[in-house]
UniProtKB/TrEMBL annotation:
A GO CC term assigned to this protein in UniProt: glycerol-3-phosphate dehydrogenase (FAD) complex
Cofactor field: FAD
Domain Alpha-glycerophosphate oxidase C-terminal: 386-481
SUPFAM superfamilies for the chain: FAD-linked reductases, C-terminal domain (SSF54373), FAD/NAD(P)-binding domain (SSF51905)
Any GO MF annotation of the entry: glycerol-3-phosphate dehydrogenase (quinone) activity
Keyword tags: FAD, Flavoprotein, Oxidoreductase
PANTHER family reported for this sequence: GLYCEROL-3-PHOSPHATE DEHYDROGENASE (PTHR11985), GLYCEROL-3-PHOSPHATE DEHYDROGENASE, MITOCHONDRIAL (PTHR11985:SF15)
Official protein name in the record: Glycerol-3-phosphate dehydrogenase
Length: 503
């Protein structure tokens, strides 16, 4: 019998936290294996509000540590991947019935000054009767504040971390569930099951990180047979996608009379992403879906502020995710901390590091802190390195995407503007790896609808672990939103016949 492969670190979960930790560890010289039971980011990390933000509303809950860390991370992440992360201005209409204007202004003053803001412009006050951002807002709202945060393609952030980890030597297994872990003589023996074939294999590892997000307790109990005094609280959040109904590039943030805030963000060019809700959730995380009362709630809040009235029939798509929040005993789901906490179980010299909570925004710091917690087990591993590192495709001079886009237009004069932007935004400086030697649209192979051509699909299968239609049209790209049902069906048929073996 052959000996199982042995790794320094085994990471359970290919969401943003697992992928971030695998990348950080591989860059420090550890041998790393990461397994994901479904697709990368198929859990919560493709279902977020897609903001790299300090979290203005967390100031009300005195989460100063988290907000400061997140504010600083905005520009760190912007510099590392300016193709998938970009600045956005948020217009917050003042509503006399909700928080007083002085309180909002004080929060924004702190937001501007808590740290890390060099590039992003600060807050300004807007007269909604005169400034263009006010044109779509109902007349009774006359004043607003405008502040900065950043937008991120969440699922691609996960994939880029996995690509970087793999390029630094990590092994990434998708559609592979960790089914058991047990300690033996100061090491872990781990059993993995290929979700497609059912085949079970064993590996060994010196340390295990449990980054299973909403499944973290399941892994502690069922998979590792361990205990933890900590746990996660599952809070569901849903979003709707509708046609965009304002002309600027800014987003809006509106307050509801239940004290919650709703984001109305420009999305995929001509659409808007609206969310989110905050509902305690006890079902299986895999089964989460937006329900009708949530969709009605989101539409009602928007209609309270905007002149144009959204209807149920405007909703193109909805999706829902489960926040794996660290359970700090708070009753109100909106008040539960958004900060992250570790639990290091060090029995028998074989560490298990459980990760509770954490946001997309703070994944890099969370990963750094996770590796610091494991430092004593790997005294020779490298130090912190990700603060100034670039994610794959982010090699864009001065993180200036606008100038980069102009260069691309000169390099690919035959490519339609929309398609250059699509490739530039998804692959950044690695665009040439997708396009290859093509010198015309024909050279990109079969066209499936929207911006999706065969060359891109083959790249995603070859380099980014795409194995199904949804991996391609929903998580690696958002072309699902641009394709007709007929085009999707044709693509599915082609993918099945052409790519099933390669994937
Ligand atoms: C509605 C909503 C809006 C949000 N908005 C924002 C936002 O705007 N900005 C922000 O910064 N954060 C936001 N968040 C928070 C953020 O999305 C999450 O905190 C983050 O995605 C959690 O990442 P994770 O890696 O811990 O979990 P996940 O992404 O869920 O990853 C865990 C992975 O582990 C895998 N797994 C589980 N068990 C096993 C096993 N036994 N074997 C192998 N794999 C396993 C799962 O399949 C899953 O893919 C939002 C969250 C929600 C729900």
């Amino acid at each position: 019998m052959t000996e199982p492969e042995t790794y320094d670190l085994f990471v359970i979960g290919g969401g943003i936290n697992g992928a971030g930790i695998a990348r950080d560890a591989a860059g420090r010289g550890l041998s790393v294996l990461m397994c994901e039971k479904d697709d990368l980011a198929e859990g919560t990390s493709s279902r977020s509000g897609k903001l790299v933000h300090g979290g203005l509303r967390y100031l009300e809950y005195y989460e100063f540590r988290l907000v400061r860390e997140a504010l600083i991370e905005r520009e760190v992440l912007l510099n590392s991947a300016s193709h998938i992360i970009w600045p956005m201005r948020f217009v917050l209409p003042h509503s006399p019935d909700d928080r007083p204007a002085w309180l909002v202004r004080l929060g924004l003053f702190l937001y501007d000054h808590l740290g890390g803001r060099n590039k992003l412009p600060g807050t300004r006050t807007i007269d909604l009767r005169r400034d263009p951002e006010g044109a779509v807002i109902q007349d009774q709202y006359t004043k607003a504040f405008e502040y900065s945060d950043c937008w991120v393609d969440d699922a691609r952030l996960v994939v880029l971390n996995a690509v970087d980890a793999a390029e630094k030597g990590a092994r990434i297994l998708t559609r592979t569930a960790c089914v058991s872990t047990r300690r033996e003589n100061g090491m872990w023996t781990v059993q993995l099951r290929d979700s497609r074939t059912g085949a079970v294999t064993s590996i060994r590892a010196r340390a295990v990180v449990n980054a299973a997000g909403p499944w973290v307790n399941d892994v502690i109990g069922r998979v590792a047979g361990a205990n933890s005094r900590r746990s996660v609280r599952l809070v569901k959040g849903s979003h709707i996608i509708v046609p965009k109904f304002w002309s600027g590039q800014n987003a809006y943030l509106v307050q509801n009379n239940d004290k919650r805030v709703i984001f109305i963000n420009p999305y995929e060019g001509d659409k808007a992403l609206i969310g989110t809700t905050d509902i305690p959730y006890e079902g299986a995380p895999e089964a989460v879906a937006a329900d009708e009362p949530e969709i009605d709630y989101l539409i009602t809040v928007v209609n309270r502020y905007f002149k144009e009235k959204l209807r149920r029939s405007d909703v193109i798509e909805s999706f829902s995710g489960v926040r794996p929040l660290f359970d700090d005993g708070q009753g109100n789901p909106s008040a539960v901390t958004r900060d992250y906490v570790f639990d290091l179980d060090e029995q028998d010299g074989a560490p298990l590091l459980n990760v509770f909570g954490g946001k997309i925004t703070t994944f890099r710091k969370l990963s750094e802190h996770a590796l610091q917690r494991l430092q004593k087990y790997f005294p020779k591993m490298g130090g912190d390195w990700t603060a100034n590192a670039i994610l794959p495709g982010g090699e864009i001079p001065n993180a200036d995407y606008v100038a980069f886009f102009e260069t691309l237009r000169m390099d690919y004069p035959w490519m339609p503007r929309d398609l250059i932007n699509h490739y530039g935004r998804l692959y950044g400086a690695r665009l040439h790896e997708v396009v290859g030697n093509a010198t015309s649209l024909d050279g990109l192979g079969r066209h499936f609808g929207g911006n999706l051509y065969e060359a891109e699909v083959r790249y995603l299968v070859r380099k980014e672990w795409a194995q199904t239609v949804e991996d391609v049209v929903w998580r690696r790209t958002k072309e699902s939103l641009r394709m007709t049902p007929r085009q999707k069906a044709d693509f599915a048929e082609w993918f099945q016949s052409e790519m099933a073996d390669a994937a």
